[in-house]
Amino acid sequence: MYSKQKNMPKKIHWGIIGLGKIANKFAADLQLADNTLLQGVASRSLEKATAFAGKYNSISAYDSYEKLANDPKIDVIYIATPHTFHFENTMLCLRNGKAVLCEKPMGINSTEVKAMIEEAKSRKLFLMEAIWTRFMPAIEKMISLLHEKTIGDIIQVRADFGFKAELNLESRLFNKNLGGGSLLDIGIYPIFLSLLVLGIPSDIKAMARMTETDVDSFCALLFDYESNAKAVLESTFEVNTPTEAFIHGTKGTIKLHRRFHQSNTITLFKDDSETVFELPYVGNGYFHEIEEVNNCLRNRVNESSKLPLDLSLNLATLLTKVQTKIGLQY
After folding, report:
1. DSSP secondary structure string, 154-219?
2. Is 321 helix (H, G, I), strand (E, B) or coil?
3. In this predicted model, what pLDDT tens digit does every residue of 79-99 receive, in sequence order?
4. pLDDT tens digits for 100-117?
5. What is the DSSP letter of 89?
6. From residue 234, how far is each of 185, 207, 217 by CA, in Å?
7. pTM assigned to the model
8. Sign of the C-alpha dihedral, residues 109, 114, 120, 126?
9. Is the dihedral of CA 276, 282, 287, 288 positive or negative?
10. To which H or E segment does residue 297 belong?
11. Which of 3, 114, 163, 180 is the most buried (most CB within 10 A)?
12. What are the structural domains of the chain?
């Protein structure tokens, strides 16, 4: 009995800052992870925090982020506030000795992300950007197929992400003060896929359509690479698009089915045949990144090998370059 107890994985105590739509889905998936406890949640409203805590079995509810960051029982904090608050919320948690999983984009620009990474490294604390896509079973399978050179050399990535949003200029999607615009909200997914598959482009072309609040409602990108591969990427709040991704190689194609950033299905097209892989994710899909964070903390490593901090910094650098090209300034 003693040895069994000794070998049990360490229970990870989580906190959540920002209790909106994504936080609800994330908290539900926390319940599915073994040896995982929701220790505390925080909102500017105690009433909201208390209701959220009751719904997802949180031990504590706080009316300030500072109180949560100071809870000695919390190991790691998930930050799910609007984009423009990610930097200050992450720095608050790191400075209070907490590991952090920060919702994407990690920062509004590469300067913020670089500072966050430096802070985490100086304090020897775990930090990861919450790009749940990276940990989905479908993406893991895609990476495996690419490593095996199943489709040969990659020559093109095509990915789109679009939905028709209600034009409410005060909403998070269109409010510049909250980091609005399609690029940071959904364009990050096609860009991340291109970075994961092809690396850093040698040249970037970008065009956008801007709203009266000076954020992009549509963004189209063409990336060029030293290998002569290309990436054709698109994000929009104006229309519903297929939201699929294709990776074309010299020997075949991999399709990530709708919606590619959380796909359950990929198809391999090769030698005039199709092979379909059904790869369902667990819960709402956040379970897989939760497991990655838990494993990193239990193994006492301060960054994920699957989503290292250099990758997040490269992503932030790409996003910042695109912002400059389309005249998007926060």
Report:
1. EEEEEEEEE------TTSTTT-GGGT-SHIIIIIHHHHHHHHHHH-S-SEEEEEEEE-TTSSEEEE
2. helix
3. 999 999 999 999 999 999 999
4. 999 999 999 999 999 999
5. H
6. 12, 10, 11
7. 0.96
8. positive
9. negative
10. helix 287-298
11. 180
12. 2-133 (3.40.50.720), 137-280 (3.30.360.10)
